[in-house]
Amino acid sequence: MEETLKLILNELKELKVGQQKLIKEQQELKGGQQKLIKEQQELKGGQQKLIEEQQELKKDISSIKDNLINGLGPYFEHIEKHIDQKTAVLKDTLEDQQLVIDTLAARSIKHESEIKDFKRILKNQ
Fold first, then answer.
1. Would you list the DSSP string of 17-58?
2. pTM metric for this prediction
3. Which helix (H) or strand (E) holds 123?
4. CA 44 to chain centre
């Protein structure tokens, strides 16, 4: 009977050691679970921050588009006016030059005619 009691005591000790091991491992699992929960919360916070920053970026992009569209319109109008002014100046200059060319051409024809007349007169003398 003593041996049986010793065997039972040994088994109880082993069970107690096993139970303590299980308790320790359970505590480690709880610690790991709490760590995972904390990390999950951090990830959720980071995800929320990313969502907010993405919305802010969308607003900034929209604002930039509006500024470009509204800013470029007057710029192109200014360029168009400048081109129109330069074109008008060039047109006036070309018209003046054409008038000079026409005048010189008319004079040249008149002078040629007078030279022919002089040659004829000189020939007849």
1. HHHHHHHHHHHHHHHHHHHHHHHHHHHHHHHHHHHHHHHHHH
2. 0.46
3. helix 2-124
4. 29
